[in-house]
Design goal:
The two termini are 16 Å apart. By secondary structure, this protein is of the alpha/beta class. The protein has three domains: 136 residues, Urease, subunit C, domain 1; 298 residues, Metal-dependent hydrolases (TIM Barrel, Alpha-Beta Barrel), CATH 3.20.20; 123 residues, Diaminopimelate Epimerase, Chain A, domain 1 (Roll). The protein is globular and about 85 Å long. It binds zinc ion (ZN).
Length: 574
């Protein structure tokens, strides 16, 4: 809901009385005087103020009663904002998302919200109608955990819809696909195909009849999904460009001033810089790139020539240590409670990790490794520790590597203090908890969940948490993340003992998870993350104070404005 009168001068589209420049020259860059609402700074010395002034993209005043101060200073293109009861925060950053995937989701068959296998089939059948025979149908976003059929979809379900199109449907977590017989045949996958390292080709059991038993059922887990890569729609540079623009604009409109984009193709860095130069990407993008050859880290890392636009930064690599919990690919110390023969998968070999980690430490490259299961996390903690022990400070490009574990989802309680002890940053997504906790007890049992999504315990042990969304795995909405972090309940209000309510965080901690702490986790804490004099003007404005309202009211707040580097990235009133 928008409030009636918000931005007094902005709404009228005129420059204020204290402007001293040519009014016709509507530059993208403004100076700002912002007051009249609650302004959270994420700075412990002065957590809430009433007024902020910005000149040349930098914060020049933080305090009370901006009026006199603004009148006395000389500004260019001054835009005065009367918050009128709405609230402003340091620009919110999603510390773990996939910007390309966020954009692609908007232009791909979207299976989010599908609530049964029957519903899935209906959605895909619609796509079949408009797709020429032989062309791949690719959709993403399904998740079966609430479905009445209580099983994964399989190739027989999809064969009912079409045997003339390869059908590939990616699970919401990106860690499994289900495909039809045509896709299996075209990829040469049959009974005797061996799964690649870190992958599984699921097979039918006897319940599906003697004619199907032991044959691939169409579910390909983790690395096995690479077997069908040749059938996926080609990602041309044009399609990528379109997706990046759509994703970045969508994000700005949700109140995000920045994203730590994960699993980025090193070739995309050129595209991202150009799009930012052309003002088509207006939010900050901090990239973690894929590594194709363990013996050579990508050249785009820490390369100022290739990262020429200040919004685009690339100094991290992204690796995957294990799979995901939903598809039982997360690597566990003890087997899954609902599958006693399975302890999940490690998807990265220690030998290869060691080469990359030691190289990264010498070259000043940040390492961000995906780990979900308690064993996956324990292994990565050990690998990081070994690399730190192996490479003396004198041989490192930076002494403070700030390596991260992406997700840090299920931890053995004994491992929790190791994060702060080794200086490793847990990068966590509150929405995963409130999505997963419905089924996590089945997978893990209640006792193991004492170390699950353990935000409070990690903070109390001295860690900071880089807060993210993992979009497009999750929706990528700051309101949902704040709600999840502060309330730790389902969007329907559900909770139970196994959700460990004591692991929720305070509203001020939630703010830091999406402002100050991601700034530190991306080596940008001297520039962004808090509202302090000298820092860059990155702000997010909501019509409702999401730190003050209770419960699901957070979800009804509306983003009004996103300002990055003193420039408007999103403006709900224009
Ligand atoms: Zn991710």
């Amino acid at each position: 809901m928008f409030k009636s009168i918000l931005f007094t001068t902005a709404a009228l589209g005129v420059l204020s009385a204290c402007s001293n420049t040519n009014q016709l020259e509507v530059a993208a860059e403004n100076d700002w005087c912002i007051s009249g609402g609650t302004i959270y700074t994420a700075d412990d010395d002065k957590p809430i103020v009433e007024a902020v002034a910005v000149k040349n993209g930098k914060i020049v005043y933080v305090g009370e009663n901006v009026g006199d101060w603004c009148n006395s200073a000389s500004f260019n293109n001054l835009r005065e904002i009367n918050l009128d009861g709405s609230a402003m925060y340091p620009g919110l950053t999603d510390a773990h998302g996939h910007l390309l995937g966020i954009g692609l989701r908007e232009v791909t068959l979207n299976l989010e919200g599908v609530n049964s296998i029957k519903h899935l089939k209906e959605k895909v059948a619609e796509a079949v109608k408009t797709t020429p025979i032989g062309e791949t149908i690719y959709g993403r976003g399904w998740i079966e955990t609430h479905w009445p059929e209580k099983r994964f979809p399989n190739k027989l379900d999809l064969d009912d819809i079409s045997k003339d199109h390869p059908i590939i449907l990616e699970r919401a977590d990106g860690h499994a696909v289900v495909v039809n017989s045509e896709a299996l045949n075209l990829s040469g996958i049959n009974m005797s195909t061996a799964a690649p390292y870190g992958g599984a080709i699921n097979k039918f059991d006897e319940a599906f009849g003697i004619e199907n038993e032991n044959k691939p059922d169409g579910m390909l887990i983790d690395n096995a999904s690479q077997l069908i890569n040749d059938l996926l729609p080609k990602l041309t540079p044009e399609r990528k460009e379109e997706a990046y623009i759509i994703g970045a604009n969508l994000y700005a409109s949700r109140g995000w001033s920045g994203i730590h984009s994960m699993s980025v193709d090193p070739d995309d860095i050129v595209i991202l810089n150009r799009l930012a130069d052309e003002n088509k990407i207006k939010i900050r993008v901090y990239n973690s790139v894929d590594v194709n050859n363990p013996n050579e880290l990508p050249k785009v890392l820490n390369n100022d020539d290739l990262n020429s636009n200040e919004l685009i930064q690339t100094r991290a690599i992204k690796l995957y240590a294990d799979g995901a919990l939903g598809s039982r690919g997360a690597s566990l110390i003890e087997p899954y409670s609902d599958d006693p023969t399975n302890s999940g998968l490690m998807t990265l070999k220690e030998k290869e990790a060691k080469i990359m980690l030691e190289r990264a430490l010498k070259e000043g490259v940040q390492v961000n490794i995906h780990a979900i299961g308690d064993s996956g996390n324990r292994e990565v903690l050990r690998w990081y520790k070994n690399a730190f022990d192996q490479i003396p400070h004198a041989d490192r490009k930076i002494t403070d590597p700030r390596w991260r574990i992406e997700h840090s989802q299920i931890l053995h309680r004994e491992d929790i203090p190791l994060f702060s002890k080794y200086g490793i940053i847990p990068s966590m997504q509150p929405s995963h908890a409130i999505g997963d906790l419905y089924f996590a007890e089945d997978r893990l049992g209640k006792d193991r969940l004492a170390g699950g999504y353990a935000w409070r315990s990690l903070i109390d042990s001295g860690s900071i948490i880089a807060g993210g969304t993992d979009a497009p795995v999750e929706i990528g909405d700051p309101r949902i993340e704040f709600y999840a972090a502060i309330e730790r309940k389902g969007l329907d209000g559900f909770t139970s003992d196994a959700w460990y309510n004591n692991e929720k965080v305070t509203s001020h901690e939630a703010l830091k998870m999406f402002t100050k702490w991601p700034a530190y986790a991306s080596f940008q804490e001297t520039k962004i993350g808090t509202i302090e004099i000298g820092k860059t003007a990155d702000f997010t404005i909501f019509d409702t104070d999401i730190l003050e309202v209770q419960g699901s009211d957070i979800l009804n707040a509306e983003p009004l404005m996103t300002i990055v580097n003193g420039k408007v990235a999103f403006d709900a009133l224009n």
